[in-house]
Amino acid sequence: MHWASASAVVFPALLALCAGQQQQPLSEVGHSGSSASTSQHAGAVDAPSYRDKLLELLEALVSTPSSNGEENEVGQYLVDYLEQEGYQVDIQFVPPPKDHPNVKDRFNVLAWNGARKSNYKTLVTSHIDVVPPHIPWEIEGGEISKHTIIRGRGTTDAKGSVATQILAVNQLLSTNKHVNPEDIILLFVVGEETTGDGMKSFSDSLKNMSPPLTFESAIFGEPTENKLACGHKGALFCSVVAKGKDAHSGYPELGKSANELMIRAMNKIYDADLGSSPLFGNTTFNVGRFDGGVAANVIPARAFVDVAARVAVGSEKDGQKVVQKKISDILNEVDDKAFTLDCTHGYGPYECNCDVPGFEPIVVNYGTDIPNLDADYVRYLYGPGSILVAHGDHEYITVGDLEKAVEDYQKLILYALNQ
Ligand SMILES: [Zn+2]
């Protein structure tokens, strides 16, 4: 992977871009009929000193669309922001996604204080890509309080994490003189929502990075409802094709219905025990796409499905294979010749350290970039907002969730630094 100094490569373009992209004050954005100014927000009874800064950063991030492949602009904004905050910044180019070959350069952003060292105590990381479609930033009118709701794509997954991580590190460094700024390094990656190519590129580059880069712990920002995750389920993604034989629907005995086989097989898989564990619960199964046949009066010769399982059993590297074997056995039971199972990728459940005083534990069912960061480190997974609204058309977060995250990230970073 190619790393480049951000100031040398990106900065001239960035200056021009950001000049045209200056964010509006909060008072002018999404306040229906409100004339409250940001300084009034800061003076609100429950407001921490960093509220305005936090909301301004999140607004800029959320207002910049960044679905997979389109992360150039938000990456450039982040580079500029971190440099203005006094960080040294490098960028790491990541090749365009296969289905978007002609996008502008996209890159991971790495930021630190002082000279770049080889060994860090903790890596603080999240992702800057979001799922489509873009949903503009909208903040509830009236005086801003902890209950104020902010809507927009990425508010929860995961620009809320990105903004609160940056604010937390800044806050910690400015208020705690015992923290060595050179113990912390920040990483914001592209591509988490699709193939994880951003984090995979970073992980691959660790081998030949100069100077080398190691870290004792990594704090991943994803929506965990402000709780500390003890781990997340694994995943398995497959396609299944059923091959039958076509015939007139009046004479089913002359054909072999691929749809019928597929329905019976999927039904069996839904009813099967695909494995469970005390920490992660049951493995769950989803037929996300189902298609087959050509017309109502034809016995269908071909059916296919795309399926995903959320894996609760087995080891990190191999848990998905346990589930794949169970699915394969069921397909064979239904018909030992008709099915082809093609599993493209997967991994087992990943545990994280949730044994930190002052945090409520949670286990989550979604995937993260943790499996893509292949190195020896202690993992933490924490972020503001709920996965239940992420990826939906009503994605939102509250000001209180964000501010709790700024406080909690500081606690978590301090804890990780002192291990
Ligand atoms: Zn995410």
Question: What does the model show?
Answer:
It is a single chain. The chain is 28% helix and 26% strand. By secondary structure, it is α+β, with helices and mostly antiparallel strands. The strands form 6 sheets. A 7-stranded mixed beta sheet has the order 1-2-3-7-4-8-20, with helices on both faces. Strands 14-16-10-17 form a 4-stranded antiparallel beta sheet. The longest helix has 19 residues, at 399-417. The chain is elongated and about 80 Å long. The chain starts with a strand and ends with a helix. The relative contact order is 0.16. The site of zinc ion has 5 residues, from loops. Zinc ion binds next to loops. Residues 231-334 form the Peptidase M20 dimerisation domain. Keywords: Hydrolase, Metal-binding, Signal, Zinc. Belongs to the peptidase M20A family. One of its GO terms (molecular function) is hydrolase activity.
Characteristic terms for this protein:
alpha+beta; four-stranded antiparallel beta sheet; Aminopeptidase; Alpha-Beta Plaits; 419 residues
Helices, strands, pairings?
Blueprint: E1 3-5, H1 6-9, H2 11-19, H3 38-42, H4 51-63, H5 72-84, E2 88-94, E3 106-112, E4 119-127, E5 138-139, E6 149-151, H6 159-175, E7 184-189, H7 197-205, E8 214-221, E9 228-232, E10 234-243, E11 247-248, H8 258-271, E12 276-277, E13 281-282, E14 284-292, E15 298-299, E16 302-311, H9 319-334, E17 339-347, E18 350-351, E19 361-364, E20 378-382, E21 396-398, H10 399-417
Parallel strand pairs: 4-7, 4-8, 8-20, 9-19
Antiparallel strand pairs: 1-2, 2-3, 3-7, 5-6, 6-21, 9-18, 10-16, 10-17, 11-15, 12-13, 14-16
Helix pairs in contact: 2-5, 4-6, 6-10, 8-9
The structure holds zinc ion.
The site of zinc ion (ZN) has 5 residues, from loops.
